[in-house]
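Q: I'm writing up a methods section and want to include an example of the input and output format. Could you take the sequence below and give the corresponding predicted structure tokens, formatted cleanly so I can copy it straight into the document?
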Amino acid sequence: MHAGTQCIKEDQTLDEAARMMRDLGVGSLPICGHDEKLHGIITDRDIVIKCVAEGMDPGMCTAAELAQGKVTWVDADTDMTTIVETMGREQIKRMPVIHDHRLVGMISEADLARHLDDRQLSRFVEGVFARP
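A: Here is the clean output for your methods example:
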């Protein structure tokens, strides 16, 4: 898990999100509201496909505009087997980690690759990448 994850605020623009991703060396950011609770996740791909390719201005479009659907997350004390199963079932590559209703970190596919045994990693890859 990457602890101390930085959020993009829901009212910040997508060009700000892109600069944060560049500066942090990440491909996604959690979207947090003014209540400091998780409202979604935005990826670099979201910015390109849902904003730029649609002819929208990333300097005018906010992170909240791309925060769609439900947010899947795990509690900080969730065991690795459950995390892998959840990420596979939901076909997600990044998992927010919550403690006391606050975002405390993110688990990425790179984290899993470093810490899972071959069997667990195979289940993750099959769940996230091999399903139609």
